Amino acid sequence: MTYVLLAALCSVLVSVLLKLARRFDIDVGQAVAWNYVATTALTLLALQPPLEPLRHADAPWVALVALGLLLPTIFLALAASVRHAGIVRSDAAQRLSLLIPLLAAFTLFGQPADGAKLLGCALGLLALACMVWRGDRVDGQGGPARWGWPLAVFAGFGLIDVLFKRVAAAGLPLGSSLLAVFAFALVVAFAIQFARRARFTLRSALGGLLLGLCNFANILFYLRAHRALPDQPALVFASMNLGVVALGALVGVALFKERLGRINALGLLLALAAIALLAWA
């Protein structure tokens, strides 16, 4: 379980770095772009993915290109969510995005839905509604930013998960797909920065490389956790997602003094319950 803990820690560190970016005068857009320089290089070095599968005629290029467009865009949405809504809500929304591929499996791909899965989905949607609730206007932040960005994170990461499942179903090795997606995302992220005429700085570049290191480490430790526990995928899945939500809540409340209303706190508990139920359904 050490790998699961490290993966969850790295996932939360990504949110922490995004939260601290403005404090250290780091341009988030530039950091996201340099992040993909790091993840692309580390994928080549650590995973050594084969390139031959990418040359096959049946390679799922539509899904790969879509992922390359979505990843940097949703990363920027995650940064905005962390800034406006906080780490607690953002990490919970990101992990609850697992509901979207599940609902897609039930409605689009004909997967049978039993009572436990349906209950888990219902709890997850209720948790999301509670997490973005703004009736008590905690943190002094009302308005659309506080609930809109977590919803964007929820929808975006859910769509990314669906696309990765389509890539996996096509038989493309994970390392090869990650390399292609990160390379596309790198081009898109830098194109966004050139379009906004960003003034590149060494500080933002270093912050982005550190962000990419944490981002890739999250993926690598999660893969190693599955490899270490090959017969217990549900345990790894549940531990990872529950760990990120719980650790994100601890970091957000303890270190960044994020305040949760009663309904928000209820949403956090419902999110934990929904993830646990779906993992073992």
From TrEMBL:
Q: Which domain of life is it from?
A: Bacteria
Q: Which residues belong to any copy of the EamA domain?
A: 3-132
Q: Which InterPro entries match?
A: EamA_dom, EmrE-like
Q: Which Pfam families match?
A: EamA
Give the UniProt keywords, A-Z: Membrane, Transmembrane, Transmembrane helix
- From the record, give the transmembrane residue ranges: 59-80, 92-110, 116-135, 147-164, 170-192, 204-223, 235-256, 263-280
Cytoplasm as UniProt keyword:
no
One cellular component (GO) term of this entry: membrane
Protein name in the entry: EamA/RhaT family transporter
